[in-house]
Design brief:
Number of strands: 12
Number of helices: 22
CATH class of the largest domain: Mainly Alpha
Strand content: 5-15%
Radius of gyration: 35 Å
Structural class: alpha/beta
Largest sheet: 6 strands, mixed
CATH superfamily of the largest domain: ABC transporter type 1, transmembrane domain
Shape: elongated
CATH topology of the largest domain: ABC transporter transmembrane region fold
């Protein structure tokens, strides 16, 4: 994590953008996600309103049946019951149509949201990923979006139906008997205060659950990736203990959140019971004084039950809503991050280059006030091979990363063929540069697909030529499916050397004008290194190459060796010239070749 501030994984996993913390703002932004689906939403509201009308009409028909068809003995009870059946059938049909429409629209919204998140992650600068655990980002992309899925697929239909149904019930109660309706409404202020009380506490509780689940996911991802080191250093028990602590924090956060929301539903039930008692008491008084019919009293009791049924239903999705809004805050925190600086309108397409690189007074800092590179002046002629050496943290990888604009220089300028790299489009710049890392990353897919990553339209003949150029063809053809052999994540069962050879073939097929090798031979055995060295003779021919050296024996024939120390160039020259100067390079050379085993030397020459 070069240049990142010190801090625990837990603290990094809980980083959230202040701009997205406001719940109302997150709710408004979620609402705008549905704007492109206006016509479908209009149809949805039509179904919701019609469903609310049928919900409000049922008790009214029951009341009329009691007063007119049962008490007065008027004929037509069967017809009245058929009308009631028809109303409820229409309500059922409307509910089905609502569910189908909400499912269609919500899945489209979520698909669009996932795509925007993925695009955003692809466009964010590398500095963003330097400071954040991948597991936490995965949690936001998967877990937090899934909480929205649960709310959209289930909660929205219930929410809309409940709100419009509640409105219909209120209107029906007022139409039937205003005094009795007002008595029933006495509990509404208490209900609103109760809801506000629980809402304030639930918001904080569910924000905590989203943060802690991100922490847990980040820890799982890190420990799975580092399981080899954990076992090698006997850290498994400590890691289990640390995970137990974080998992317990997530458990406690969820228990707290559930405890808060679980108290909400009984509170509403208590208010429903109180409202029913008020209707029975006051309605019974009106009925005994012939001011209210038995049918109307029955209808009112049904309305009161229906009135609180939506409230209870809302309480059941309350947990989903709070969790979803907390997840939305974390999602919008990513979407609100500033992407990698976009190419300006005046940016030109970099023409085919010869590969001359010029650093002039270049300085760079990952964080303001903490320079990693200072006053770098370096010329690399087209076709030259320049090696960067130095101790850990000297700035070798950072210097090389400025060439393809993974980062932009803080001060000074970097030019290729006399053109400032900040004046050209990144795509045209990076299309003429290939990067081979110490730890090659192979994607899930076939070996052929991984090599084609450098040139998507490469033919089978070109694949074989690239593999042959780096001495990988023999082992690839020996595999059961050859180039069609499917690799698992990270390269499956291939050896480190074989994975590195495939990454070299990927660079060859891209045919770059500039090649950057970041300790590309550091983790291979001597036999594979010999194969790679022969491949490099072909690969480097006619190309400008920047080689970050781990083993000094691999760079003795470089055209120029540049020694970095604390972000500054302290020596430069050929291998023979630097040995004769008896300076820093000579010291590193003596230290490495006098070491009894490479294992002792490796820490002194690790990645900058």
């Amino acid at each position: 994590m070069r240049g990142g501030p010190p801090g625990s994984l837990a603290s990094m996993a809980q980083v959230s953008d202040e701009r997205a913390k406001n719940r109302s703002a997150s709710l408004r932004r979620l609402t705008t996600e549905f704007a492109p689906y206006g016509p479908k939403l209009v149809l949805l509201f039509f179904f919701v309103i019609l469903g609310a009308v049928t919900q409000a009409g049922g008790p009214w028909l029951v009341g009329r049946a009691i007063d007119e068809n049962i008490i007065k003995g008027d004929p037509g009870l069967t017809t009245r019951m058929l009308e009631l059946l028809g109303i409820y059938l229409i309500g059922t049909l409307m509910s089905r149509q609502q569910t189908m429409l909400v499912g269609d629209v919500s899945q489209r919204v979520l698909s669009d949201l996932r795509e925007r998140l993925f695009k955003q992650l692809q466009r964010l600068p590398l500095a963003y990923f330097d400071k954040r655990p991948i597991g936490d980002l995965m949690s936001r992309l998967l877990n937090d979006v899934d909480t929205l899925n649960q709310l959209f697929s289930q909660g929205i239909t219930q929410l809309l139906g409940s709100l419009f149904g509640l409105t219909g019930i209120l209107i029906a109660m007022l139409v039937l008997n205003v005094p009795l309706a007002l008595v029933s409404f006495l509990v509404i202020p208490v209900m609103l205060l109760t809801t506000a009380f629980f809402a304030a506490r639930a918001r904080a509780a569910f924000r905590k659950t989203r943060e802690t689940v991100g922490d847990v996911t980040a820890d799982i991802q890190e420990e799975i990736v580092g399981v080899r080191e954990a076992q090698a250093f006997n850290r498994t028990n400590e890691n289990i203990s640390r995970f137990r602590t974080r998992n317990a924090a997530n458990r406690d956060a969820n228990v707290s959140a559930v405890g808060i929301t679980s108290a909400f539903s009984p509170s509403i039930e208590l208010l429903a019971t109180l409202a029913t008692a008020l209707v029975i008491g006051y309605g019974g008084y009106l009925t005994l004084n012939n001011q209210l019919s038995v049918g109307l009293l029955t209808a009112f009791l049904l309305y009161v039950q229906q009135f609180f049924r939506p409230i209870q239903l809302l309480s059941s999705i309350y947990t989903q809503a709070q969790s979803a809004l907390a997840g939305a805050e974390r999602i919008y925190a990513i979407l609100d991050e500033t992407p990698e600086t976009q190419d300006s309108a005046s940016s030109q397409v970099l023409p085919t280059i010869t590969g001359r690189i010029q650093f002039s007074g270049v300085g760079f800092a990952y964080n303001a006030g903490r320079n990693v590179l200072s006053e770098i002046d370096l010329s690399i002629e087209a076709g030259q091979t320049v090696a960067l050496v130095g101790s850990t943290g000297a700035g070798k990888t950072t210097l090389a990363s400025l060439i393809p604009r993974f980062y932009d220089a803080t001060t000074g300028s970097l030019k290729i063929d006399g053109i400032d790299v900040r004046d050209v489009t990144r795509h045209s710049l990076r299309s003429q540069i290939a990067f081979v890392l110490q730890e090659p990353f192979l994607f899930s897919g076939s070996i052929g697909d991984n090599i084609r990553y450098g040139k998507l339209d490469a033919s089978q003949i070109q694949l074989e030529e690239a593999a042959s150029a780096v001495n990988a063809l023999e082992f690839i053809k020996a595999l059961p499916q050859g180039f069609d052999t499917v690799l698992g994540e990270g390269g499956g069962t291939l050896s480190q050397g074989q994975r590195q050879l495939i990454s070299f073939a990927r660079a060859v097929i891209a045919n770059p004008r500039i090649l950057i090798l970041d300790e590309a031979t550091a983790n291979v055995d001597t036999r594979t290194e010999a194969l790679i060295q022969r491949a490099l003779e072909t690969l480097l021919q006619g190309r400008t190459s920047v080689v970050i050296a781990h083993r000094l024996s691999t760079i003795e024939r470089a055209d120029k060796i540049v020694v970095l120390e604390a972000g500054r160039i302290v020596e430069r020259g050929t291998h023979a010239e630097l040995l004769a100067a008896n300076g820093r390079y000579a010291e590193l050379h003596r230290r490495q070749f006098r070491a009894p085993t490479p294992a002792v030397v490796a820490p002194a020459m690790a990645r900058a």
